[in-house]
């Protein structure tokens, strides 16, 4: 630790230096290797995320410099890309999900990947035929609960909504991707009756938060016994915190999927490198680090299997997912319907 | 008035105000330019027919009015009690702690609220332990009010304390000689100060609550309990409907401006007594009933202020301190946050002084109060424009002419300074008015002008409000997360970014520690800046 940090009266000088450093343009990169710029979401490049492991692995085989630019979350990525338009510096965008791909495709900023994803992604519970985006991991939404508070978890979404009295926190579909996921999940199970289902669930919804972090924080603080999260949340607590009191409810109707994807920017001047990187995402150096860094399922079955903590009763034929075009076409109307039901 | 003195009068305020309006106009224009050929007028008309927008607007008006009324109303007895108990043990610490809730990230503060008032919070645990059959339910309008009072009551108390400190000692002495006590004393000496300070303060608290976002969704109890800010965020992030974003933003600005100007219309300048700025010696408050009232007022404020902060401390206490504090990334983030905060605090102060110097002269020399209020409200417009919208607009504007990655933190400095500006105006403004009103003629007759006049005449009176304003604007920027999310990259991680990043990666125990580091940093800034700039005298 820098000892100056504990002496506030030095803060002025320190601050001036810090500002000068922060505002200075990025230093020129060593050597003359080509740079592949990848926009991704913030947590991908965190010390504990997959980024720091993927970077040296790819640089070892590509003869290039892989530069991650971390920007908020998946939605922020798409917003940033739209704000930048054709002038974007990105060669690859990594971390959009299937709820966003239709809108991302509509920007016209993405180029076909030309990969045979279906032949490789054997651990993806759905058939993949998107020509623009390459899946690199996935998870499914799940009601995650505290096993010390709830002894007997419901075994279907219908039972959870109609017959249980478990209070929970969810995220707002107006502002959050998981919130949107739950709305689509209920829609895919209940169809025209979704509004009625929401009205039944509403009295038990303690809070509808802006994002996942607030909701999960409330759950871990013991404020609610259940929260909308991912089926891959419990493995984190088991493997990192040695805490096995967090579990995901397995519902027989199936769980709504979230597939994370990457795509090549059509204006890239390094299409070969970008294509090579997209293929690399489905190779073992990336796929093997995904489960315990991004806490998601890999799209390719690992040779030695997943850690036991990743066992979850979700079978591929029960994976639920609207195609991106349906989501894009109906999202506004369905959010309105949700809002109406939640306002009655 | 000579041409030269007219320029000196108008130049600072008008240039700042014009700059702000230009910045906002150009930023919104740049956003709209992405969607070619459309204006915000048609969608603005569309909003008028949008039931959802009306429902949200109505709720936001109600909760923000109630929040402002409660926060400021409860702050009056607390500030009054603190002002007449200068020897209260621990008073210095209490007053410094009161600066905190306003500046810590709302997500951190709200977790403190939930730990105290939530379903499994201290209050409900206490009720259960006592065997009482009822529980409090945080989630709903009451939760929004509790949270907003926690964030704003201590802040309002601090501002009002400045107001009390600005009452000249001569007023107290005169009241003493006339034997004024109780209600007559309040009406003659204290009420005129409140009439000057309260409208601006209440207006600012209203704006903070009206544009509140994460708090309202977290403890508001349900989706209909939202603010326009939620709708703007939704339109910007999910729908990327920039026309709707602009229309909603303009609606928000219009409503806020109307409220601020309406409040300004009921404010009255404080009648001027020639004060010599001697220490206050008031002799009321010795009676038993005033002691009880003061104890209750201060006790209540502490009851609102302390438990959530304590809960945050306790929550962090058992966390992995060694691992979190030994991370060089944390200290890099601290350095970056501090740099940005110092720069934006200084910028906010400079802009604020520019507006104040002109507006007080317009108010007192030209006797055009309406014009002066309009000028001051220009400094508030940027605050009610959602930072994300302002940031996105600036981004679009600059993407063609500059490397947005390289100047990202510079943009954060600018946007954060605009967010701190209203605080500077509301804290320094009333004191600056009084300084001109009391000392203006004497300084004029001595022919003082320019910097030496500021140093000799204004500085001694204004240094304490300036210290508080600068400390608050700086600390606000430390805790800010709104625009850094748009401009930040992994190379520009600030402390709030690190906090969110940890939370988003299940590392809540580490996030709690970072939250405490952030709170400590804000407190340090209050101590150092207020002492360094404001001087050693009591508040």
Describe the fold and architecture.
The complex is a heterodimer of chains A (344) and B (539). Chain A is 38% helix and 19% strand. Chain A has helices at 11-23, 51-62, 74-84, 101-106, 117-120, 157-163, 177-190, 194-201, 212-220, 233-239, 271-280, 284-287, 290-293, 324-343, and strands at 35-40, 65-70, 92-97, 110-111, 133-146, 168-171, 205-209, 226-230, 246-248, 255-265, 297-298, 319-320. Mean pLDDT of chain A is 88; it is low at 1-30. The longest helix of chain A has 20 residues, at 324-343. With 344 residues, chain A is an alpha/beta fold. In chain A, strands 1, 2, 3, 4, 5, 6, 7, 8, 9, 10, 11 and 12 form a twelve-stranded mixed beta sheet that branches. The termini of chain A are far apart. Chain A folds into two domains: 32-138 and 258-310, 3-Layer(aba) Sandwich (D-Maltodextrin-Binding Protein, domain 2); 140-257 and 314-343, D-Maltodextrin-Binding Protein, domain 2, CATH 3.40.190.10. Chain B is globular and about 65 Å long. The model of chain B has no long low-confidence stretch (mean pLDDT 88). The two termini of chain B are 37 Å apart. The longest helix of chain B is centred in the last third of the chain and has 38 residues, at 408-445. In chain B, 77% of the residues lie in helices and 0% in strands. With 539 residues, chain B is mostly helical. Classes of the chains: A alpha/beta (344), B mainly alpha (539). The interface between A and B is large, with 78 and 79 residues.
């Amino acid at each position: 630790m820098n000892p100056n940090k504990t002496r506030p009266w030095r803060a002025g000088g320190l601050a001036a230096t810090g500002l000068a450093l922060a505002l200075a343009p990025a230093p020129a990169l060593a050597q003359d290797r080509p740079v592949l710029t990848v926009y991704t979401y913030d947590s991908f490049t965190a010390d504990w995320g997959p980024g720091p492991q993927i970077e040296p692995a790819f640089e070892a085989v590509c003869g290039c410099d892989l530069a991650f630019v971390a920007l908020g979350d998946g939605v922020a990525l798409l917003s940033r890309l739209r704000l930048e338009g054709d002038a974007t510096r990105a060669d690859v965008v990594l971390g959009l999900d299937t709820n966003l791909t239709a809108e991302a495709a509509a920007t016209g900023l993405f180029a076909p990947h030309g990969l045979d994803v279906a032949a490789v992604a054997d651990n993806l519970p759905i058939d993949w035929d998107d020509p623009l985006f390459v899946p690199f991991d996935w998870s499914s939404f799940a009601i995650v609960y505290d096993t010390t508070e709830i002894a007997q978890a419901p075994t279907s979404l219908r039972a959870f909504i109609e017959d249980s009295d478990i209070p929970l926190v969810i995220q707002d579909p107006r502002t959050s991707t998981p919130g949107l996921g739950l709305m689509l999940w209920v829609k895919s199970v209940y169809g025209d009756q979704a509004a009625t289902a929401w009205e039944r669930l509403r009295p038990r919804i303690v809070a509808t938060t802006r994002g996942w972090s607030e909701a999960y924080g409330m759950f871990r603080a013991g404020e609610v016994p259940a929260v909308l999260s991912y089926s891959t949340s419990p493995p984190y607590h088991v493997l990192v915190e040695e805490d096995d009191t967090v579990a995901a409810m397995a519902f027989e109707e199936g769980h709504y999927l979230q597939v994370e994807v990457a795509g090549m920017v059509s204006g890239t001047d390094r299409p070969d490198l970008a294509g090579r990187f997209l293929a690399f995402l489905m190779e073992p150096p990336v796929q093997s680090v995904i489960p315990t860094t991004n806490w998601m399922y890999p799209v390719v079955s690992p040779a030695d299997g997943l850690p036991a903590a990743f066992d979850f009763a979700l079978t591929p034929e029960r994976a639920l997912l609207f195609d991106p075009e349906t989501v894009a076409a109906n999202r506004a109307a369905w959010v309105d319907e949700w809002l109406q039901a939640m306002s009655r | 008035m000579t041409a030269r003195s007219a320029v000196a009068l108008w130049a600072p305020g008008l240039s700042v105000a014009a700059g702000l309006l230009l910045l906002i106009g150009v930023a919104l224009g740049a956003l709209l330019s992405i969607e070619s050929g459309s204006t915000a007028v048609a969608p603005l008309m569309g909003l008028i027919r949008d039931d959802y927008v009306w429902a949200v607007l109505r709720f936001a008006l109600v909760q923000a009015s109630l929040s402002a009324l409660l926060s400021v109303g409860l702050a009056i007895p607390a500030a009054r009690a603190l002002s007449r108990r200068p020897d209260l043990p621990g008073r210095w610490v209490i007053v410094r702690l009161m600066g905190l809730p306003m500046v810590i990230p709302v997500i951190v503060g709200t977790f403190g609220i939930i730990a105290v008032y939530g379903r499994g919070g201290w209050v409900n645990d206490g009720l259960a332990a006592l065997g009482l059959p009822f529980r409090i339910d945080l989630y709903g309008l009451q939760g929004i009010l509790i949270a907003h009072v926690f964030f704003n009551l201590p802040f309002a108390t601090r501002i009002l304390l400045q107001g009390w400190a600005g009452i000249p000692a001569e007023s107290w002495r005169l009241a003493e000689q006339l034997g004024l006590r109780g209600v007559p004393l309040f009406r003659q000496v204290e009420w005129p100060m409140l009439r000057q300070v309260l409208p601006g303060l209440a207006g600012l608290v209203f704006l903070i609550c009206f544009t509140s976002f994460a708090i309202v969704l977290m403890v508001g109890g349900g989706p209909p309990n939202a603010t326009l800010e939620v709708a703007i965020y939704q339109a910007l992030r999910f729908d990327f409907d920039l026309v709707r974003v602009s229309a909603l933003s303009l609606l928000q600005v219009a409503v806020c401006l109307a409220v601020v100007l309406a409040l300004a219309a009921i404010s009255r300048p404080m009648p001027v007594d020639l004060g010599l700025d001697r220490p206050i010696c008031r002799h009321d408050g010795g009676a038993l009933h005033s002691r009880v009232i003061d104890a209750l007022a201060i006790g209540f404020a502490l009851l609102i202020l302390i438990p959530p902060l304590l809960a945050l401390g306790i929550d962090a206490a058992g966390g992995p301190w060694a691992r979190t504090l030994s991370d060089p990334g944390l200290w890099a983030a601290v350095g970056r946050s501090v740099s940005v905060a110092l720069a934006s605090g200084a910028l906010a102060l400079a802009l604020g002084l520019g507006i104040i110097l002109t507006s007080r002269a317009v108010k007192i020399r030209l006797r055009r109060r309406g014009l002066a209020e309009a000028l001051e409200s220009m400094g508030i417009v940027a605050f009610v424009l959602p930072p994300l919208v302002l940031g996105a607009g600036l981004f679009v504007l600059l993407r063609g002419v500059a490397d947005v990655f390289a100047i990202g933190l510079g943009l954060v400095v600018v946007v954060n300074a605009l967010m701190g500006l209203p605080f500077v105006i509301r804290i320094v403004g009333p004191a600056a008015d009084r300084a001109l009103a009391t000392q203006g003629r004497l300084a004029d007759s001595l022919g003082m002008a320019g910097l030496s006049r500021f140093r000799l005449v204004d500085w001694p009176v204004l240094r304490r409000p300036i210290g508080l304003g600068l400390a608050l604007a700086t600390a606000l920027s430390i805790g800010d997360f709104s625009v850094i999310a748009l401009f930040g990259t992994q190379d520009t991680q600030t402390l709030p970014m690190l906090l969110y990043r940890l939370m988003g990666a299940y590392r809540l125990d580490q996030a709690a520690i970072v939250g405490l580091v952030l709170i400590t940093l804000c407190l340090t800034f209050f101590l150092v800046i207020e002492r360094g700039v404001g001087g050693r005298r009591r508040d």
